[in-house]
Amino acid sequence: MGKFIISQAKNGVKFNLKAANGEVIASSQVYKDEKYCRKGIASVINNAPVAPIEDQTVEGFTPCKHPKFEVYKDKAGEFRFRLKATNGQIIATGEGYKAMAGCKRGIESIKKNVVDAKIIVEAPKEAKAE
């Protein structure tokens, strides 16, 4: 079972979705506060299981309707994905993969792990005394 970890970020809060093995399989943007971060998590839970994959690495690809996983190549030549909600907003992104197969396995892992994922709020890290 996966879990969403909500943690402090520089200008707000963000989440990481971790698979059962502890690997981070998707990350969010930085949200203003926890309430909006939880709305982002709810959107991932609702959209990921039904989202098709739009392979933008193929010339002349057919665009899919939202929600969808967009797969693309980054500047380093790695395969990446972003999950877009029904309104077209990016709600989660993945790491870079050397091969398309790995990228697609990452997407399948998200679809599987969001179903019963727990939400855990990480305690803020203490500021170090100087």
TrEMBL record:
Pfam families with a match to the protein in the record: DUF1508
Residues passing through the membrane, by range: none
InterPro entries: DUF1508, UPF0339_domain, YegP-like_sf
Coiled-coil positions: none
SUPFAM superfamilies named among the record's database cross-references: YegP-like (SSF160113)
Source organism superkingdom: Bacteria
Residue ranges of domain DUF1508 in the record: 13-55, 74-119
Protein name, as recorded: DUF1508 domain-containing protein
Annotated organism of origin: Phascolarctobacterium succinatutens YIT 12067
